[in-house]
Amino acid sequence: MHPVITAFAASPDRGRGLARDMPVRWAFEEVGQPYDVRLLSFAEMKQTAHRTLQPFGQIPTYECGGLALFESGAIVLHIAQNHTGLLPDDPDARARAITWMFAAVSTVEPVITQLENTVYMERDKPWFFERLPLMEDLIRIRLGELSERLGTFDWLDGTFSAGDLLMVQVLRRLGSSNLLSEYPSLCAYIARAEARPAFQRAFAAQFAVFNSARTQPTLHDV
Ligand code: GTB
């Protein structure tokens, strides 16, 4: 039995690999663990059956044997801890890689989601055009600090780890903004990660879901 994860049946990201099943798929691909996916509609995500697995009615979830998990970062950590390939063996290096996982989701991601929320929910507010540059500057601070730390290295701490996986996935959320282009070393860091065969397999798998949803005949086609 393979682990089963949940993902959007029709992802609002239109197949760009930005929803949070993507890091989980990518982690499975990095360690060579096959997995199955249960696709959910928005309505199904809010039903009790799914909330039993994910109290907030979101994707992704992970089920394997008797274990059910939610939170993409925790799922990636679980995969990384139970397979080789995403965390170093050396205990100190392992702890540092896990630190980068937390840094991705708790220090870098919040300023990015704050900007997304402002753009999605406050666009029609009178303060929107004043607030936007403030949100962007908060992101610039984090990107500058991250770029400074990465320097000329390929990865954040030695070899590619689950810390890089989560960090890159967080940074990819900025894809449609111009902010990243101000940090060429971060663009190169993302490109390096996206060139990994495991990333490409994960991306193709989630894109296939979007593509098949798009080509499903609708009532009007029948
Ligand atoms: N902290 C949780 C985790 O990491 O697992 C957050 C999970 C989460 O935000 N899930 C989102 C969800 O289920 C999907 S990924 N949302 C539905 C809901 O809350 O009702 C977030 C996401 C959605 C859309 C885009 N996009 O269109 O680009 C990108 C990311």
Assigned CATH architecture of the largest domain: Up-down Bundle
| CATH class value of the largest domain | Mainly Alpha
How many helices does DSSP assign?
Answer: 9
Low-confidence stretches: 218-222
Largest sheet: 4 strands, mixed
Outline type: globular
Distance between the termini: 37 Å
SSE string, helix = H, strand = E? EHEHHEEHHHHHH
Tell me the strand order in the biggest sheet: 2-1-3-4
Q: Helix- and strand-based class?
A: alpha+beta
* Overall residue-averaged pLDDT value: 95
State the total count of DSSP E strands: 4
CATH topology of the largest domain: Glutathione S-transferase Yfyf (Class Pi), Chain A, domain 2
Which cofactors or ions or other ligands sit in this model?
S-(P-nitrobenzyl)glutathione
- β-sheet strand percentage: 5-15%
| Number of individual domains | 2
C-alpha Rg (nearest Å): 18 Å
Short description, anyone?
This protein has 222 residues and is an alpha+beta fold.
Can you describe this structure?
By secondary structure, the protein is an alpha+beta fold. It has helices at 21-31, 42-45, 48-51, 72-82, 91-121, 128-150, 162-172, 184-194, 197-215; strands at 4-8, 36-40, 61-64, 67-70. Strand 1, helix 1 (21-31) and strand 2 form a beta-alpha-beta unit. Helix 5 packs parallel to helix 7 (162-172). The radius of gyration is 18 Å and the shape is globular.
Name some characteristics of this structure.
disordered C terminus, Glutaredoxin, 222 residues, 8% strand, binds S-(P-nitrobenzyl)glutathione, 4-stranded mixed sheet, 56% helix, alpha+beta, Glutathione S-transferase Yfyf (Class Pi), Chain A, domain 2
